[in-house]
Amino acid sequence: MAYTFQVTVDSADPHALADWWADALGWEVEPSDEAFIRRMIDAGHASEDDTTTHRGVLVWKTGAGIRHPEGLDRAPRILFQLVPEPKTVKNRVHLDVRTGTDDPRSVVERLIAKGATLLHEGRQGPYAWTTLADPENNELCVSP
């Protein structure tokens, strides 16, 4: 049997990081269901402490997800989850962002302008990539 998966990224500010990655990838932040959240609080299954407001919308404090605009059949969901500790070492897993027909240099410049940090340029034979860190220092590579 083949399994599906989602990618989960630990984060100090999951909603802001989900916004950043959705913009970086051209994906969509999953909408919040405020009525559902309120029902869970009213029924005693959650408390106000389990929520926060992000961009004027009531959301679950512990996480935010993003999806490819063509849905989960096109690419797995990415979940950004709240954790108390900061990132301290190099990631053992990272995302490789493939730019397709877009110029990778332009994508790198756009991401840096939006808060990414340039870590290094890499090359192996005919293949080249740029390694960046997102606003919470998670590594990612950009290549054609």
* SSE sequence, one letter per element: EHEHEEEEEHEEE
Strand order of the largest sheet: 1-6-5-2
What is the overall number of helices?
Answer: 3
Distance between the termini: 32 Å
Describe the structure in your own words.
The protein is α+β, with helices and mostly antiparallel strands. The protein has three helices and ten strands, in the order βαβαβββββαβββ. It has helices spanning 14-25, 34-42, 104-113, and strands at residues 7-11, 28-29, 51-54, 57-60, 63-67, 78-82, 95-98, 117-124, 127-133, 139-143. It has a four-stranded mixed β-sheet with strand order 1-6-5-2, covered by helices on one side. A four-stranded mixed β-sheet has the order 7-10-9-8, covered by helices on one side. Strand 8 (117-124) and strand 9 (127-133) form a beta hairpin. The longest helix is centred in the N-terminal third of the chain and has 12 residues, at 14-25. It is elongated. The two termini are 32 Å apart.
